[in-house]
Amino acid sequence: MVGAMSEDRQTGRQDRSGFEDDVAEATFAPSSPAESGSPASDWLADEPVVLAAIPQVADPSPIGWLARRRHRLQRWWRGASHNLRGSVYMMSALLVYAVMVGSIKHVGGVIPLVQILLIRQIIMSVIIVAFSAGSLGPMLRTTRPGLQVVRSVLTLISMLCGFTAIIKIPLAQATAIGFSQVLFVTIAAVLVLKEVVDARRWAATIIGFAGVLIMLRPSGDGLDLYAMMAVGGAVFGAGITVSVRMLAATERTDTILIYQGLVLIALLAVPGWLFWVPPTTEQWLWLLVLSLFGTAGQWLITRAYQVGEAAALAPLDFSRLILASLTGFVFFAEIPALSTWIGAAIVIGATLYTIRKNARPLVVPTASA
Fold first, then answer.
1. Which residues of the chain have pLDDT under 50?
2. How would you label 257-295 residue by residue, b for 16+ Cβ within 10 Å and e otherwise?
3. What pTM was estimated for this model as a whole?
4. What residues contact residue 208 under an 8 Å CB cut-off, 6+ apart?
5. Could you tell me which of 275, 293, 237 has the C-alpha nearest to residue 104?
6. How confident is the model over 90-111, as pLDDT tens digits?
7. Residue boundaries of the structural domains of the chain
8. Which positions fall inside the EamA domain (predicted)?
């Protein structure tokens, strides 16, 4: 689905400003030669007036109103900046992901996670192939199959850790800890991509990890295992980010996703069969919902970063914490602890600083005259 769908870029704009006037003229036009007092031939020349007898034209108020709103929305969309369009895609993705995460938490207590991920990946892969528009051959063509497999394995581990945390601990806490992924990306970029990180970014990273520790709430009994799994999801999520950066130069988005599907289905097939729990009709519905919403969310967030600038969109990602808190409170009666909010504020502040530093263009020295 990602890479096969594209934004509608029609540039023609239909002007409906005279539509109501045309209908008014048709309404008050004479209906017979006798009423008009003109010859029949002249009356026949005005034959198009009988279009007023068509219900859609005679009473245009409902269709005309919807059409006007639609065209106004289209004009607004075409005139919107790239970052505004990207923001719309991003917020839509976050809303969609909120439904997916809530669905996983709902069925995760009775359906094994490996089974959920297997069903989700099968449905996602089928959708990607269905929207490939006959380009399955080019989609499967890759110059870096080894890295594709590595990225897919990292994705599986990240989902197993992150979704287990979502099922077992409050949504707000799992979501807030997940924001530390940007901090782990900084470390991975230094170790793997050999990027240079200045002292300020290192300081922001250390402060961010302090916020993570606050949310983990270490005690004499040690750290919460499931909170640590949320950290693990962020660590392997950072590995996904770095691997995608390495693949971006040569690989298509749909190629990355289809290889992810093939590898994950192969890895999950046996454990999914061994731990299979027959879902009820209601559970199948939730599994279908989380699969469809997960696919839609992946497309929307990919589209957002294709349209808008990463530095402008990334801060919107923190609204996930609000959505997660509301979802957890309304549907699962979860109330985030004060330590979660304090730690989240520290992590978000450190992450925003890191994002702004990453967004600054390099200053290229100019030759002196």
1. 1-62, 362-369
2. bbbbbbbbbebbeeebeeeeeebeeebeebbebbbbbbb
3. 0.72
4. 180, 182, 183, 346, 347, 350, 351, 354
5. 293
6. 889 889 999 999 999 999 989 9
7. 19-76, 85-357
8. 85-216, 227-354
* Listed residue (124, 143, 169) closest to 294, CA to CA: 124
Counting residues of the chain whose pLDDT is more than 90, the rounded percentage is: 31
Q: Please give the structure tokens belonging to residue 42.
A: 């002249």
**Secondary structure in 3-state letters for the chain:** CCCCCCCCCCCCCCCCCCHHHHHHHHHHCCCCHHHHCCCHHHHHHCHHHHHHHCHHHHCCHHHHHHHHHHHHHHHHHHHCCHHHHHHHHHHHHHHHHHHHHHHHHHHCCCCCHHHHHHHHHHHHHHHHHHCCCCCHHHHHCCCCHHHHHHHHHHHHHHHHHHHHHHHHCCHHHHHHHHCCHHHHHHHHHHHCCCCCCCHHHHHHHHHHHHHHHHHHCCECCECCHHHHHHHHHHHHHHHHHHHHHHHCCCCCHHHHHHHHHHHHHHHHHHHHHHCCCCCCHHHHHHHHHHHHHHHHHHHHHHHHHHHCCHHHHHHHHHHHHHHHHHHHHHHHCCCCCHHHHHHHHHHHHHHHHHHHHHHCCCCCCCCCC
